[in-house]
Write a structure and sequence with these properties.
Length: 331
């Protein structure tokens, strides 16, 4: 179907487009296109003679065929509201008890063409290995995927090892602090989202985790990303640390609910002037002070002292609760 439009030389097209926008008669459902040296601007109606006279004299009012813009489907268009969700690889995650969870799952498959599975979490993060239980709400029946982040790939089974894409920016912040001659010890490495990008920047990474499934995927991800300077160790960080006295220029302690139980080991492995990146879950009334006190007490017990480098809130975790990072230099 032909549509009224303005044909105008390309070099005068932008002022004409702005004028038509001001009149609110540019048809935004149709694609502007060019042919030769002319630009064709679709109209919702024909211009009046007075309106047309405001355009450059080279302008012509004609009829022409146009292509429609494909409307980008949004979750709000289907559901009438915006649900909470996150995407890991080609799997979308929602809460299984969310109102209209099945409707949300079906909508996610329609809107996000890269999503092949929608999982509903049926538990909070739980257990010694801090994993979650899920049920498949839509799409393929699986919990395993490959997530891409800043040029790296992470294979993970979401029921067998903890992983969140929400810390991507925080992980890159830590990576930016690492020097090429540094030795880094990742006490709770998981599937490798800290260890693997850090390894590309430093001399050596020692990555450990107590969860055998996490270690399995960490080893796969080391190969998947062609990393050679990571030592992968399965076991309790408190025990493994005894093999690495004073070797680490940076120690990553990303176990925010219970990292304080590993402070003695973290102090033990930290080199003089080395930095501990300590993650905690704290109340808004005491974001940093109590945690700093715990780190200081552990250092004093080992005959060492601390210097606070930076304290920062990483994200909101629950009402009045925050995931924080405290970075201290161990002297």
């Amino acid at each position: 179907m032909k549509q009224p439009c303005i044909a105008i030389p390309k070099k005068k097209g932008e002022p004409a487009r702005k004028f038509l926008m001001e009149l609110d008669i540019l048809d935004k459902s149709l694609k502007i296109f060019s042919e030769g040296d002319e630009l064709y601007l679709p109209l919702e109606r024909e211009l009046t003679p007075e309106e047309f006279n405001e355009l450059p004299e080279e302008a012509r009012q004609v009829d022409h065929e146009f292509e429609s813009h494909e409307k980008i489907l949004k979750l709000e268009d289907i559901l009438g509201f915006t649900p909470g969700y996150e995407i890991v690889g080609d799997i979308a995650l929602i809460e299984a008890d969310e109102p209209e969870a099945q409707k949300v799952a079906d909508a996610l498959l329609k809107v996000h063409k890269n999503v092949q599975t929608v999982l509903g979490a049926v538990s909070a993060v739980e257990g010694e290995f801090r994993t979650r239980r899920f049920k498949v709400l839509a799409g393929e029946d699986r919990t395993e995927t490959v997530h891409k982040d800043h040029g790296f790939k992470y294979k993970v089974d979401l029921e067998r090892a903890y992983f969140t894409p929400r810390l991507s920016t925080e992980r890159q912040r830590i990576v930016s602090q690492i020097g090429k001659e540094d030795v880094v010890l990742d006490m709770f490495a998981g599937v490798g989202p800290y260890s693997i990008p850090i390894a590309r920047k430093c001399k050596r990474v020692i990555a450990m985790d107590k969860n055998p499934d996490a270690i399995h995927f960490l080893a796969e991800n080391v190969k998947l990303n062609s990393i050679e300077n990571i030592e992968v160790i399965e076991g309790d960080a408190n025990e493994i640390a005894r093999k690495f006295e004073g070797v680490a220029d940076h120690v990553i302690m990303n176990l925010p609910h219970s990292a304080d139980a590993f402070l003695d080991a973290a102090i033990y492995v930290t080199a003089p002037k080395g930095i501990i990146h300590y993650y905690g879950m704290t109340h808004e009334d005491d974001l940093y002070e109590s945690s700093i006190g715990l780190i200081d007490a552990a250092a004093k017990k080992a005959g060492r002292s601390i210097e606070v480098v930076e304290c920062r809130t990483v994200r909101s975790y629950a009402p009045h609760q925050y995931n924080v990072c405290i970075e201290v230099r161990i002297n």
